Amino acid sequence: MGNKKVVRDGHIHSPYCPHGTKDTFEMYVEKALNEGLEEITFTEHMPFPCYFIDDKEFQDECAPSKDVMDEYFKDVEKIKLKYKDKIKINSGLEVDFIEGYEEETKKLLNIYGPKLEDGLLSVHFIKIEDQYIAIDWKQGFEEALEKLGTLECVYDKYYETLLKAIKADLGDYKPRRIGHPNLIRIFNQLYPFEYKNTKLLEEVVREIKNRNYELDVNTAGLRKPYCGEIYVSGIFKELVNKYGVNQVYGSDSHTASDIGRDFDNE
Ligand SMILES: [Zn+2]
Ligand SMILES: [Zn+2]
């Protein structure tokens, strides 16, 4: 990417995110214009196909419910129209890969797919035995560490799940961009670890390249208290460059002020 100014933000949430802010679509777009962006995608979390963890309250916080999706897409259409001469706005979703729920996810994608112009496929949950654990909050990460025993096993599990996500058959509307591929490093300052399983990482990157998928170069990690880095980093980043995988910056904004944030940070 070098010194070329980044003019696209491919990962933005919306007022429909249960764990986000109520900042309006207008606020996000106005901030994008202020940042000099030329293209953005709203990638609200896709609703889950069903409850797959026991803690329903927690799961409800992760993604909006199916009931509001019509409104979400309508609002995106409205904002696109309103700003059509100023900025390109894409309608999208951030889709969770939930191991074992591929068919259900495909069914949902077949419903929303015709409305999608862009999108992300992300891994937030890893499956350990029969349990799904969200690794991007501290308690979940620590639970995974306790169950799997070592940081290396936790990282292995994350990248193995990512590999399954990349290979999964999620139908015609499967998103082509892999969200924050190094999310497992979200607590790397609390649990320092230099992951060296180059074989697995290389397989992940190769499979992305083979399918002509893209990567979400996600700057949200810089804002997390125990991360301090972008979610394409280290050995993974070297491999991404080696294979020439397409990269799209994403702020993962849950508030308008974060749009385009840290895009000049390499
Ligand atoms: Zn979110
Ligand atoms: Zn995400």
Task: Please tell me about this protein's structure.
- The mean pLDDT is 96.
- With 266 residues, this protein is an alpha/beta fold.
- Helices cover 35% and strands 17% of the residues.
- The strands form 2 sheets. A 7-stranded parallel β-sheet has the order 1-2-3-4-7-8-9. Strands 5-6 form a two-stranded antiparallel ribbon.
- The protein has one domain (8-258): Metal-dependent hydrolases (TIM Barrel).
- The site of one zinc ion has 6 residues, from loops.
- Pathway: Amino-acid biosynthesis; L-histidine biosynthesis; L-histidine from 5-phospho-alpha-D-ribose 1-diphosphate: step 8/9.
- One of its GO terms (cellular component) is cytoplasm.
- This is Histidinol-phosphatase.
- It is an enzyme of class 3 (hydrolase).
- GO terms for molecular function: histidinol-phosphatase activity.
The CATH fourth-level homologous superfamily: Metal-dependent hydrolases
* CATH topology title: TIM Barrel
How many helix segments?
8
DSSP E strands, number: 9
Mean pLDDT: 96
Overall shape: globular
Our count of domains comes out at 1
Largest sheet: 7 strands, parallel
Q: Tell me the helix content.
A: 25-40%
Q: From the helix content, strand content and strand pairing, which structural class follows? A: alpha/beta
The CATH architecture can be given as Alpha-Beta Barrel
What spatial order of strands do you see in the largest sheet?
1-2-3-4-7-8-9
- Unreliable stretches covering 5 or more consecutive residues: none
